[in-house]
Design brief:
Layout: E1 4-13, H1 28-46, E2 56-65, E3 76-85, E4 93-95, E5 98-99, H2 100-115, E6 118-127, H3 134-144
Antiparallel strand pairs: 1-3, 1-6, 2-3, 4-5
Helix pairs in contact: 1-2
Length: 155
């Protein structure tokens, strides 16, 4: 079985302000760094979940802002993640009856409040988990073997 591959896009909106007054506004850069740390921690803790099919992996792949100046904080930051899971992130319960999407949004809501910013997240469903068909693998793998320099195994 292979985990499904999904995308998670997070947009953080605050207030652009002069850096001397950055602590008075919704600082999207500080909120972004907190989101990255929190989701990384969530992903690491998740790997200790006993049932492998309940695990998921979040990997930050891109971060950008709308900054145009070095002496003003950006009003918007965007984070992009790869989300790998054996579950549907929006439909199947992962922990304590909550979906992956609900777990992520709960964390994001706390961060938004702490940093006085708005945080919006969107999960884009891509490929679902794949269950390999052993009978099909037994038909295909012998044909691949002559061109493959590594050992092929069917589990």
């Amino acid at each position: 079985i292979m985990a499904g591959s999904n995308l998670l896009d997070i947009t953080i909106t605050g207030t652009s302000t002069h850096v001397a007054l950055a602590s008075r506004s919704g600082n999207t850069l500080l909120a972004s760094s907190e989101v990255i740390k929190t989701l990384e921690s969530m992903s690491k803790r998740n790997n200790k979940v006993r049932k492998k099919e309940k695990r998921f992996l979040l990997s930050a792949t891109n971060s950008r802002t709308n900054a145009t100046s070095r002496n003003a904080t950006p009003s918007q930051s965007t984070l992009q993640y790869a989300l790998r899971s054996f579950l549907s992130p929006t439909d199947d319960p992962a922990w304590n009856g909550k979906t992956i999407e609900q777990l992520i949004n709960k964390k994001l809501k706390r961060i938004a409040k702490r940093y006085n910013v708005a945080i919006e997240s969107i999960i884009v469903k891509r490929s679902p988990p794949t269950v390999n068909d052993k009978a099909l693998a037994h038909l295909i793998l012998p044909r691949l073997k002559p061109d493959w320099n590594q050992q092929l195994q069917i589990h």
